[in-house]
Amino acid sequence: MKDTYDFKRIEEKWQRVWEDRKAFHVTEDRSKAKFYCLEMYPYPSGRIHMGHVRNYSIGDVIARTKTMRGLNVLHPIGWDALGMPAENAAIKNSIHPREWTMGNIEHMRTQLKRMGFSYDWDREVNSCQPDYYKWNQWIFLKMFEKGLAFRKESWVNWCPQCQTVLANEQVVAGGCWRCETTVAQKKMEQWFLKITDYADELLSGHDELRKWPEHVLQMQKNWIGRSTGAHVHFGLEGSSKRIEVFTTRLDTIFGATFLVVSPEHPAVPELIAGPGEERLRAWVAKTVVEMRMRREIGETEKAGVDTGKKALNPYSGELIPVWLANYVLMDYGTGAIMAVPAHDARDFQFAGDFGIAIRTVIVPPGEETKRHDAAPAEVFEDHGVLVNSGPFSGLRSEEATEKMGAHAEANGFGRRSVIYRLRDWGISRQRYWGTPIPIIYCPKCGTVGVPYEDLPVEIPYDAQITGAEGSPLERLESFVQTTCPTCGGPARRETDTMDTFVDSSWYFFRYCSPQEKNLPFAPAAAEFWLPVDLYIGGVEHAILHLIYSRFFTKVLRDFGLTKIGEPFPHYLAQGMVTKDGSAMSKSKGNIVDPDDILTEYGADALRVFIIFASPPDKEFAWAEEGLEGCFRFLTRIWGLVHENLDLFEAGAGTAAPSGGAGEAGGRVVKKMHQTIRKVGEDIEVRFHLNTAVSSIMEFLNLVKKEKDGLRETAGGRGVLRQALETLVALLSPFAPHMAEELWEKTGHAGLLMKSPWPAFDEDLAREELVTIVVQVNGKLRDKFEAEPDLAEAGMEERALALPKILAVMGGRPPRKVICVKNKLVNIVG
Ligand SMILES: [Zn+2]
Ligand SMILES: [Zn+2]
């Protein structure tokens, strides 16, 4: 009687066995090499989605393969459990954020277990638990002590929908990253983390990240935005005030025909004083508001006014007009620029619009001997040779930049310098469901950190979450009122909570020692497991999460808690999951619920399909037919093993696999060794998990084709038996439940997931080469060796490159090339 593939029974059975035997539990076993395989932990929104299934299936294939390779694999999971959706649910459905979150986690944990992922559940972390976020507060206080956490008043991005502050990184095209509402500007006291102290190291650390996608490194570089140049002071005419500018093109300074100052610049009152002051003040007021509203929206119409004031170019001694314009921001550089219209496209356009002089000071090499008096017709932004630049004329841009920088330093009106686009990280949020910032304000003692022994400052359960503006904590007097830890007098608690990106900036340390009571993590455990050997997650985290995690790791290193400076030397950015041409999303209505698929096809089929349909880093397009195909593939393996179960009965087919199995046996043995090699390399070297699955499929097809012949001899039966065992073992990382079941059915005692990965024999895996003869106009001229089934294009290319053929052809292109696979290339010339 044929046993049908009852995936429901099989999957439940093995999930129970793995759990009972604690099969995924790991310790710091120093007898084995470690491998830390990490997927980005999910936000517990309620249900897992296909993006999760994909991310975690990729990680699980790697983790299970490494385990079978004999490595000590740490493969943890947890919950990024604080954040706004819980509060929104509280407002909408009158459920407490804590209940909502814990219920979601309960459900999602069950779903992840149904997928058969090999997580060490003893290491689960949950960022909404006080024993986790206590350490956010601990790290914050350490940073506060060292001046890395500080408070200042600043303009902040404000989402009117979410009622909270957003970091610049969380403003996408002028909208809130979460709800897309247009972001407004608001002035508030905020807590910041001094990520700018690490700007240079965040850039130089990229040298260690050779296994990151190049475009992710580039995005981070752009975000950090390092510019080398010089600060130069322009004296204001009739005043002791100086306007400082930053320029990356000091070589062009003789071409500066005006200064542009931000309307937010502190010198504005002096610049607009005098005749026309009323008009200028009105312009400034209107423009500042517009700029704050539209700061992140991109190109705005350039607008400017002439203040009537003049500034002195310290190099040329020339007096040039000072303008105010909306395209110079106060928070980048110094809030003032020198405008060189001949050599900067934006200045060129502005000067043209407002009729300001344009003077050439850089020309392409060779042009410097000509006169360059007239205003140029177009902008020239390249480096070149200086003209009209006093004593620096005739120098090349690079040399001039050096000499002019030294000149400014020697004369005290400037210095060579570096600036960054990166801003300090504003972490204050006026929300309830976040880590309370552990600070107390005392009227006598000022800003005081909560003593370490009083941590955690717990999120009070009884706050009213109504969605009204401001923080629910602010309205909860029992939380706000406290005593000062320094003087014992009455004091008030900080009511801002931390950006949830703080939680995810160090959770991978916590997995190393999740029960640690005295520190965020045990340094010895972290030293054993870190860095993370492979980190897998969506590329949407290229900037926010991945820069913050790198920053936190460097800070924790400087606290002496870890020795590593980079947490993730290898980052695999997994592609999007799409259906019908767009990303799966609620708004598009194209979501496929993993639960439905699990019920209909089982976890193994879903895992195989999601891995097989596309390489991990590419987009994955959902197609039901593909899923059915993968289900049939599993059913075929199931059937094939069951038809041949007699081979595994005691004493059956124990003959040596290589002897006396005939040609069919030789073919299967060779393919088996090649498949083992290919699957291993695809998984561990190339990360082409999809082609690993197709190799297993090809091998299955060959075994099916040859099985009847193999069964006829004792040697053949031995080969077939070994081929089936290999198939099942190679299947294990992809379809672990079925693989365990078949492993057991074929008489093996231990767990397959703990058994060694099949070995291959290099000699047996080697392809025999075929000899291909090359003819020119029907006459034999040469021959070459090639791997079997080389494609025609490859045959033609190699034949035409042979020295003898090149000589015969004498440079003529062939009129026609005819290829016969594995045999012949005939060139008609
Ligand atoms: Zn929002
Ligand atoms: Zn006090």
Overview of the molecule:
The protein is an alpha+beta fold. 37% of the residues lie in helices and 18% in strands. The strands form ten sheets. Strands 10, 11, 12, 13, 14, 15 and 18 form a seven-stranded mixed beta sheet that branches. Helix 19 packs parallel to helix 21. It is flat, with a radius of gyration of 34 Å. The relative contact order is 0.11. The mean pLDDT is 93. Bound molecules: zinc ion (ZN) (2 copies). The site of one zinc ion has 7 residues, from loops.
How large is the count of helical segments?
25
Span between termini: 65 Å
Shape: flat
- Give start-end ranges of low-pLDDT stretches: none
Ligands in the structure? zinc ion
Biggest β-sheet description? 7 strands, mixed
The quaternary structure here is: single chain
The value of Rg in angstroms is 34 Å
User: Strand tally, please?
Assistant: 34
Proportion of strand residues: 15-25%
Binned, the helix content reads 25-40%
| Average predicted local confidence, pLDDT | 93
Structural class: alpha+beta
